[in-house]
Fold this sequence. Notes:
The complex is a heterodimer.
Chain A: E1 2-7, E2 13-15, H1 35-44, E3 53-57, E4 59-65, E5 69-75, E6 79-82, E7 85-88, E8 91-95, E9 99-105, E10 111-116, E11 149-151, E12 168-173, E13 187-191, H2 200-208, E14 211-213, E15 221-225, E16 240-241, E17 246-248, E18 256-258, E19 265-266, E20 270-274, H3 279-283, E21 290-291, E22 293-295, H4 298-323
Parallel strand pairs in A: 13-22
Antiparallel strand pairs in A: 1-4, 1-11, 2-3, 3-10, 4-9, 5-8, 5-10, 6-7, 8-12, 13-20, 14-15, 14-21, 15-18, 16-19, 17-18, 17-20
Chain B: E1 9-14, E2 17-21, H1 28-44, E3 49-52, E4 56-60, H2 74-85, E5 98-104, H3 110-117, H4 121-130, E6 133-138, E7 145-148, E8 163-166, E9 170-174, E10 177-180, E11 185-187, E12 190-194, E13 215-221, H5 223-228
Parallel strand pairs in B: 5-13
Antiparallel strand pairs in B: 1-2, 2-4, 3-4, 6-7, 6-13, 7-10, 8-11, 9-10, 9-12
Amino acid sequence: MSLTVIKPGLLCSVQDRGRSGHAALGLGRAGALDLPAWQLANALVGNRDDEAALEFSLLGPTLHFAQDAWIALTGAVDQIQLDEVTLPGWSCLFVPAGTTLKIGPVSQGCRGYLAVRGGLALAPQLGSRSSDLHAGIGPLPRCLQAGDELPIGPATPLNALPAGSAPRALHWGVDPAPWRDPSTRPLALLPGSHQSLLDDDAMRALWQSRWRIGQDSNRTASRLLGPRLSLRAPLELISEACLPGTLQLPPSGQPIALLAEAPVTGGYPRIGQLAQVDLPRLAQQRPGDTVSFEPSTLEQAWHRLQRRQQALTRLSHNIARRLQP
Amino acid sequence: MSDLPSSPRIENVGEDALLLHFGDRIDAAINARVHAANHRIQRALPQLETVPAYASILLRFDPFAWSDHAGQTPHHAVTQAVLHALQHVDNNLASARRIDIPVCYDGEDLPALAQHAQLTVEEVIARHTGAEYQVAMLGFAPGFAYLLGLDPALVMPRRAEPRLRVPAGSVAIGGSQTGIYPTSLPGGWQLIGRTPLRLFDASASSPSALQPGDRVNFRAIDAAEFIHLGGDAP
């Protein structure tokens, strides 16, 4: 079982939860930028929640399935057109052998996910199938290219959506609204070690400005364009470990929000740490979109993370029960 | 046992991370404390992922596994466990691994570095091989080790124009540090030689030859031994 890449789309790579445990060796986690969307794509095809799926940005790939397959599209994908049929995102789709699936531009954000029942069965490297595009690590250490064949793991038919001769969708799906918050609500920012060193103008600008996502943003970081932020006094820092979600302030005065492929160490002042629940919202912003920040305490961020985790676990269980009654 | 002057300063970084601060400068003694503490935490609390740096350790944990106490953040529980573990730090790092790195000293920047240091090339090599280094931290790229212990006479600023591609195995000096490019990377350090050793292999279960806290010595080899040890002909 495999699928063939006809057109690779944009920044399309293999991602799972990421590669933890190697940061001390200079190797970051990588993994899906929008973890809930990735997890729900797996849930919708009845996978265990650690299977690898495809992640793409703005433009989805075109893929050929030589065998029957069950797939799910989540994240920024709203629906796709297959021949004359419109098929929904955030549901489970059956595609018969011989189908060529053109995902095309996404409509509701930046990052889309495609999970296949059985998972993308590449041999894990250092405990993960994720591609670390920056470091060149992973079973496929680069973006997809036309002609790539990706193995699909063993998959039994799905009771809720029997195989047939035509592509079709499950009669139900997941409401993406709670997982794809398109509102302009600010992103919650925990205080960073050096936030108090911002000068008064910079402190005001941090909270009051709308920050535009730069064109050169990628899986490593979102570059934020807005007023130039400066510190009260120059600060010489030595390198220390950094994390996804860290808001760094390089000498340009334009903050950088680190994402899933964050470097493991860095020496820029840290002016904030995004609440983990808001990381997918940032990752779903397109270049040119704007975001703003509001202060949050660690306790608030932790409670929101717990609530999201409970909702995600409950939803995943419900999906599993309805897929294989 | 412990002669640590004080506990590290602890900073809550995010929902799943704490940063332990042991100082605010690049200093071999502070870094040795980092590795002693890191060693102790790894043994006592293997469920934490630790990322030691020059003067700090980042701890990452699964907050859901540390959230037994209603109303309290997992940071409280992790902090208590870490402080308890650090009561018993053995600062004598006699257990540090010692790694011998063969180097063919024929780097492109070696003549310029000798000139900068007002030494002969032979004196540069003697000083570079004569010191013992400590792996302060890894970063920049998988397997890239920052080594402390460079002879002050060999300190030289980075190149004004970084190279777009430094070959894997290049031994280099950047400011007061020395290091080895584990893979082919862009870089601005002064290249003084090459090692035939493969320092990073993502397909190996232990992918990096150098690990935080290791002690490193360089040994001069000639071009024939470089090839004999598996190095690629230039």
